[in-house]
Write a structure and sequence with these properties.
Length: 246
């Protein structure tokens, strides 16, 4: 099947639910680079992103980390706080100026009692993101660095803050580091894969940065090994508009 368009299939909370949550939650604005919380700290409730981007990072060793998830508008993070005696499993850092809502444990319980129809959607969002984390674990256990990098680039393409106007992704120094942490590989391993993409016409160098082709083009021309590995990404043809597994 010829792939024409990459379709964003990331679940996000709709505006009516965000408005309902805002009645119960505390709103905060975090400057770029601000640490919202650290791994091991006592967790309470759940956060919802209104705008901006929060990177969840596990520190591996000095100068290196692993990013299991990036939360953007309409997504949640810090749901460890919904568990009894919860502790945060990662560091959470605002990657750009970010606005969030925070539902503490007591406010979450009030929300469940008084707005069950909206609360169910919030719980569903948390579980959808939990499922995405399980899928990420499967990728780490079964896919090569090359395959994981393709999947990570496609995930970045779902977040419009990473995209240029033509759908391409520019990997400057900061985004390159983030990509390495999303892939869970060394910079050397990621550089080898990006250089192969350059050789195949799927990326180009611009000074010290890489510019990667739009996700649809990347998946359309991906090596058979990537497709055979069943990288879990949904795409669509422009003519049919139907989704299919790439």
């Amino acid at each position: 099947m010829e792939v024409e368009i990459f379709r964003d299939v990331t679940p996000r909370l709709p505006e009516p639910v965000l408005e309902a949550i805002a009645v119960y939650a505390a709103k905060a604005t975090w400057p770029a680079g601000f640490t919202v919380y650290q791994r091991g700290a006592s967790a309470d409730g759940v956060f919802v992103v209104l705008r901006g981007r929060v990177v969840l990072r596990s520190r591996v060793k000095a100068g290196r980390g692993f990013v299991p998830a990036v939360a953007t508008a309409g997504e949640t993070f810090g749901a460890e706080g919904l568990a009894p005696n919860g502790r945060y499993a990662t560091d959470a850092r605002a990657d750009e100026e970010t606005e969030t809502l925070h539902l503490s444990g007591p406010r979450m319980r009030a929300f469940l009692r008084e707005q069950p129809q909206h609360a169910i959607q919030l719980v569903g969002q948390v579980m959808a993101q939990h499922a995405a984390l399980l899928e990420k674990l499967r990728e780490l256990a079964t896919l090569s660095v090359e395959q994981r990098l393709v999947a990570a680039l496609a995930r970045m393409a779902q977040h419009h803050g990473f995209l240029e106007s033509d759908g391409r992704i520019t990997l400057d120094a900061a985004r390159y580091r983030l990509l390495c942490e999303m892939v869970g590989a060394t910079r050397e391993s990621v550089s080898l894969v990006l250089n192969r993409l350059v050789g195949e016409g799927l990326a180009e160098r611009q000074g010290t940065a890489f510019v990667v082709a739009p996700a649809g083009t990347l998946l359309e021309r991906a090596a058979p090994a990537w497709r055979d590995a069943e990288v879990g990404l949904l795409v669509a043809t422009e003519s049919s508009g139907r989704q299919a597994e790439a």
